[in-house]
Specification:
Elements (H helix, E strand, L loop, with lengths): L88 E4 L4 E2 L5 E3 L5 H11 L9 E4 L2 H7 L14 H19 L1 H5 L3 E2 L6 E8 L2 E9 L36 H18 L8 H19 L27 E3 L4 H4 L4 E7 L2 H8 L2 E3 L3 E4 H7 L9 E7 L24 E6 H7 L12 H4 L3 E4 L2 E3 L3 H17 L2 H17 L17 H26 L5 E3 L2 E6 L15 E8 L2 H8 L4 H12 L25
Parallel strand pairs: 1-4, 4-7
Antiparallel strand pairs: 1-2, 2-3, 5-6, 6-7, 8-16, 9-17, 9-18, 10-15, 11-14, 12-13, 12-14, 16-17
Helix pairs in contact: 6-13, 8-12, 8-14, 10-14, 12-13
Length: 625
């Protein structure tokens, strides 16, 4: 490999005063915002005459290629690397530094002082998030003195204990070694960890950069650590469990990381955030800035917390579906397969088609609340206090869950629902509802939002089209990342602690999240009723947007359409004699649940509608942070 860094006297370059950022960038300044002010760009005089510019090359750049190997590489490791992220990120390995497209810039960064000079010289620009410097491989960390030894994982029964210790050790090491950068004018935004958030004031403006330490990303809290001690999703880096993490060797890892960064810049319009949820938020914020600047499109600039609800239940406003029944002889007759079908990218589909309410909601009671539900275009977006009738008084199918998770068999239930559920309950039984009139639901109270619209339509379109690119190219790594972005963002709508900065408050939208969950639940129930009519098959289990059926050989319940929200085969396993015996002899739903879980255990990351599972059926309702 050539060593062009001798031509770039990077660490001897004199840093000139930086010009003010462009006016449009001033709107992005906020130390806590997901979008950052553009970093100052050095003047031409600052570089040696023979120095190539660190921006996009005129000719297609050469990416650092992995060593020849006889093993079969994943499809995504052979996909082309773009230049879209070259002005926004730098990758540092033990051997040298690279643009994401693979162009070699400098020799090893073996001190924090050199890291400081690299950041200032590269003059990276934000792209939805602050510009990024990625430290790839343990060797690059060792050169910077960023070494921790939290202990051997075999010595820990709980990975969370190891992770917590490692995170604390990493923070201590970084605080001790970052002094040269702090003395040079940089400031830390929060405690340093696997991402070091740095900012520097230049006149009235603030420039930012995030240093992401790849070998220590696992030290960040991840819900999967509580599940069988497995290491789960780690954002754009992928998932070791799913087989989408970066290659083991540094240069192939740098090449693949650069490809993913360029992919995000091209198809999502932003760099990946510190977490998938932050990436989803960065896309929303970019759309918001564009709409604010042009005056075209809906803009929501305020939070939408749950209003004070009298008599509200604990837990989710609109719980996801979760139900199991013991199969009978008719279910098992002729069955030879256990199949789960799920809605393709269910949350994303609902987010793009629903109209969400915003603004300060109005509180209505009595007749005014009931009258508000009777509009020319149906009930407006809001929350409604209704009475669910006892299920035994309705003509409902016995082999489906009750139409609403709060409904009981033998007594009425007063509860709060979103407009999605209000509309769903009014649908005929054949379409998944209970055929109720508004009078039957006895609306006594409501909170109605003054404005509503398809606020997330463009956001969903960007993610939908990016997901399609991943599917069409066999890019499992970015498809899983896109799924984590929309599920993580929608999941974190409910958590105000995620969006404490003023310019991030609009991401706190728990009622939107409730409406999305309700929409997915009602859509699944409607499909289950159609399947029962057309195929005579009833589910034995449902979790969120996944429905499990016992089917004969050749039976296909999936939708022909490839549109999001349509049913696709998630898992398909033979109904072995032991499995059939376990289901036939099950005495309660707990035993059925155990049998189904065991049958699908080996299929966690096998093919679904395209080539890998969306895994929304295992989502805890909040997605991946």
């Amino acid at each position: 490999m050539s060593r062009p860094w001798e031509q770039i006297a990077l660490f001897d370059v004199h840093q000139p005063p930086a010009p003010d950022p462009a006016p449009d960038d001033a709107a992005e300044i906020d130390a806590e915002d997901t979008a950052a002010e553009e970093s100052p760009t050095p003047t031409a005089e600052a570089e040696p005459a023979e120095s190539p510019t660190p921006t996009v090359a005129a000719e297609p750049p050469t990416a650092p290629a992995p060593e020849p190997t006889t093993s079969i590489r994943p499809v995504w490791e052979s996909l082309p690397v773009g230049v879209e992220a070259d002005e926004h990120a730098v990758i540092v390995t033990a051997d040298g530094t690279y643009t994401p497209s693979g162009r070699e810039l400098t020799g090893p960064v073996d001190s924090v002082e050199k890291l400081d000079k690299l950041v200032r010289w590269a003059a990276l620009k934000p792209l939805g998030t602050p510009p990024q410097v990625w430290i790839v491989g343990q060797g690059a960390c060792d050169a910077l003195g960023w070494v921790i030894d939290p202990g051997d994982e075999d010595d820990f029964k709980d990975m969370e204990v190891l992770r917590t210790r490692a995170a604390a050790d990493l923070t201590a090491v970084l605080q001790a070694t970052l002094m040269p950068m702090l003395n040079a004018g940089w400031e830390l935004r929060g405690d340093p960890g696997h991402v070091v958030h740095l900012s520097r004031s230049i006149g009235k403006f603030t420039s930012m950069v995030d240093v992401v330490i790849e070998p220590y990303v696992w030290t960040y809290w991840n819900k999967d650590f509580s599940w069988n001690n497995r290491v789960g999703e780690m954002g754009i880096l992928g998932s070791p469990t799913a087989g989408t993490y970066l290659p083991d060797d540094d240069l192939p890892a740098a090449r693949e990381l650069g490809r993913r960064l360029a992919w995000c810049a091209k198809h999502l319009g932003v760099l990946p955030g510190p977490t998938p949820a932050r990436t989803g938020a960065a896309i929303v914020d970019k759309i918001k800035r564009e709409r604010t600047r042009t005056g075209k499109g809906l803009v929501v600039a305020t939070a939408g917390p749950v209003p004070p609800l009298d008599g509200a239940r604990r837990g989710d406003l609109e719980p996801a579906a979760g139900w199991t029944r013991v199969p009978d002889e008719q279910d098992l007759e002729g069955a030879c397969r256990l199949v789960s079908i799920d809605q393709r990218a269910a949350y994303l589909a609902s987010a793009g088609m629903l109209e969400f309410g915003y603004g300060q909601p109005t509180h209505l009671t009595g007749g005014a609340a009931a009258a508000a539900a009777v509009g020319e275009k149906g009930a407006p977006f809001g929350l409604w206090r209704i009475t669910l009738p006892p299920a035994q008084t309705l003509s409902l199918p016995e082999k489906l869950p009750l139409p609403h998770p709060h409904m009981l068999i033998d007594q009425p239930v007063q509860t709060w629902v979103t407009t999605v559920s209000l509309d769903g309950l009014r649908e005929p039984v054949a379409d998944g509802g209970i055929g109720a009139d508004l009078d039957d639901l006895d609306i006594t109270e409501a909170w109605v939002f003054p404005q509503q619209g398809r606020v997330l339509d463009k956001w969903a379109k960007i993610l939908r089209e990016a997901r399609k690119v991943s599917v069409d190219t066999g890019d499992a790594a970015t498809k899983l990342f896109v799924g984590s972005c929309y599920k993580g963002y929608i999941g974190r709508m409910v958590n105000p602690d995620m969006w404490t900065a003023t310019r991030m408050a609009h991401h706190h939208q728990p009622v939107w999240r409730a409406a999305i969950i309700a929409h997915c639940r009602w859509r699944g129930r409607r499909v289950a009723m159609r399947i029962a009519r057309e195929h005579g098959r009833w589910p034995v289990r449902t979790v969120t947007d996944s429905w499990v059926y016992l089917l004969a050989d050749g039976e296909d319940l999936a939708d022909e359409s490839a549109a999001l929200g349509k049913m696709s085969v998630e898992k398909d396993t033979p109904l072995t004699d032991p499995l059939q015996t376990a289901l036939a002899s099950a005495e309660d739903v707990h035993e059925v649940k155990l049998a189904i879980t065991a049958a699908f255990a080996d299929d966690d990351f096998e093919a679904d509608d395209d080539f890998t599972t969306d895994d929304e059926n295992t989502d805890d309702g909040e997605g991946v942070l």
